[in-house]
Design goal:
0% strand; mainly alpha
Length: 58
């Protein structure tokens, strides 16, 4: 899914505000998604929020 790519690249570039925006947009359109895709979008959303709060994910 395109949002996964955008979220991953934003997190890698440390542009956490953009990552969070993409994650929120992905969640808004997720009603018709497969549950696995939805869970991946949610994971990246949470990862972006986690990093934005100054914590590292390893």
């Amino acid at each position: 899914m395109a949002y996964n790519f955008l979220i991953q690249n934003s997190i890698k570039a440390n542009d956490l505000n953009k990552a969070e925006e993409y994650a929120k947009a992905a969640l808004e359109i997720s009603r018709g998604m497969d549950i696995e895709d939805f869970q991946m979008e949610r994971y990246y959303s949470l990862a972006g929020i986690y990093l934005k709060n100054g914590k590292m994910i390893r």
